[in-house]
């Protein structure tokens, strides 16, 4: 077997390269369509070399999801925008700049509805955490804060799917601006 020509990268940089390659592939094919060989090839690694950095295919998926969450937190700022309406608008503006990441999330969220999917527990916990945070922000804004939180998530998810299906014909930010008038009055 021929040895691959590849540049030696610091571990953190190599891990970032692996996560970026896996993110693109999962967004395109879903988790079940993800091949560790394809990720390794994209990074100039062997599969054992890839596994050295991520442990397993499931470990790679967790790394991708954690990276996505950390990047969103970083992009929203510390502290994030105050107020429910402002936070939602900032999230939509951010998502409008990253269709590949939104597609990744949509594909994995749908796939992980199956209880045996490796991200099932992650998405279940994430959904509850998002609803809890939005419900807290909705207190004082709505007489039914939990209902408003669920409506916000459903609206964002639905608009993002429409946008992903027809990016040229759907302005995500404009659609959210119209929807927030209905949601927040």
TrEMBL record:
Pfam families: TetR_N (PF00440)
Domain HTH tetR-type: 12-72
UniProt KW keywords: DNA-binding, Transcription, Transcription regulation
Highest rank taxon of the organism: Bacteria
Record bears the keyword Transcription: yes
Ranges annotated as DNA-binding: 35-54
UniProt protein name: TetR/AcrR family transcriptional regulator
């Amino acid at each position: 077997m021929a040895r691959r020509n590849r540049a030696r990268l610091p571990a953190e940089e190599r891990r970032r390269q692996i996560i970026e390659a896996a993110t693109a592939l999962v967004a395109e094919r879903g988790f079940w369509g993800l091949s560790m060989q394809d990720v390794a090839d994209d990074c100039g690694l062997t599969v054992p070399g890839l596994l050295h950095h991520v442990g397993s295919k499931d470990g790679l998926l967790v790394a991708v999801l954690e990276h996505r969450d950390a990047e969103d937190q970083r992009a929203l700022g510390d502290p994030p925008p105050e107020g429910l309406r402002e936070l939602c608008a900032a999230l939509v503006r951010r998502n409008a700049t990253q269709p590949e990441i939104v597609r990744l999330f949509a594909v994995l969220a749908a796939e992980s509805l199956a209880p045996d999917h490796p991200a099932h527990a992650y998405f279940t916990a994430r959904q509850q955490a998002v609803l809890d945070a939005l419900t807290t922000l909705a207190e004082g804004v709505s007489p039914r804060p939990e209902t408003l939180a669920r409506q916000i998530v459903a609206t964002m998810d639905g608009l993002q799917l429409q946008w992903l299906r027809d990016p040229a014909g759907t302005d995500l930010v404009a659609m959210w601006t119209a929807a927030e008038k209905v949601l927040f009055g």
